Amino acid sequence: MIVRRILTTFTLVIACVAATAAPAQADLFGNTSVMTDRLENNPAQRWTIWSTGNGTGGFQAGVGFVFHDMTTGWTEIGRDVTLSPIDGSHTCRAYIDLFAEDNGGEALVNIEVINPANWQYLAKGTNRVASTPIQFFTPKWSNGPTTVRFRVSLIGNGDRTLWIDNMFISCDW
User: Fold this and answer.
1) Which residues, including other chains, have CB under 8 Å from residue 20's CB and lie 6 or more apart?
2) Per residue in 75-97, pLDDT tens?
3) What does the alpha-carbon distance between residue 72 and residue 66 come to, in Å, rounded to a whole number?
4) Do residues 158 and 108 make contact, with C-beta atoms less than 8 angstroms apart?
5) Least CB-packed of 57, 75, 77, 166 within 10 Å?
6) Torsions phi, psi of 140, nearest 5?
7) DSSP element (H, E) containing 48
8) Where are the beta strands (DSSP E) in 63-159?
9) pLDDT for position 44
10) Gap between the Cα atoms of 111 and 63, Å rounded
């Protein structure tokens, strides 16, 4: 009976060590993170804010925000990103942290990657965002241009404020 307990304990210890000995993931995406923006150091030089109505936005303490109080249209915060070095075939993905102010409902949000040459979507995801922060990944896109437009659009569904932080775009090739 004692030998059985010792062998069981030994087996569990070996299993735990083996499980924790796996190599750590270097980043969230895989091979190479080609662009990171944590919205620090004067983000207004890189990001633009635009609205179809009376929406506004800005930056404070290392995060960006947009406000939209209409039931139609949208207010967006976005920036152009040059992906490099990209040589040949590639697959990319974007990630951003989002949370909404708790003002009576969820914010309806599009996360978009656009080809600025023709304004066609390369990747687009839609999500409802509440006051609990979420990490949002776009769908992957392949073999797009080296310069893309990344934007977060707060869609008109009432009086909403959306906060954004920590944007990453990564490409595998």
Assistant:
1) none
2) 999 999 998 766 668 889 999 99
3) 15
4) no
5) 166
6) -75, 150
7) strand 48-51
8) 63-68, 74-82, 91-100, 107-115, 120-129, 134-137, 141-142, 147-155
9) 94
10) 16
Query: Can you list the domains of the chain with their CATH numbers?
Result: 31-172 (2.60.120.260)
Amino acid, res. 113: V
Q: Read off the pLDDT of each residue in 158-166 and give the average, rounded to a whole number.
A: 90
How do strand 160-172 and strand 91-100 relate by DSSP bridges?
A: antiparallel
Helix (H, G, I), strand (E, B) or coil at 77: strand
- Tell me: the pLDDT tens digits for 100-109? 987 767 899 9
Looking at residue 65, its amino acid is F
Alpha-carbon Rg for the chain in angstroms: 21
Structure confidence at residue 6 as a pLDDT band (50, 70, 90)? very low
Query: Greatest CA span in the chain, whole angstroms?
Result: 76
Output the six-digit token pair for 165. 């932080």
* Local structure of residue 139 (DSSP, 8 states): P
Beta bridge partners of 107: 129
- Gap between the Cα atoms of 91 and 141, Å rounded: 6
Q: How many residues does the chain have?
A: 173
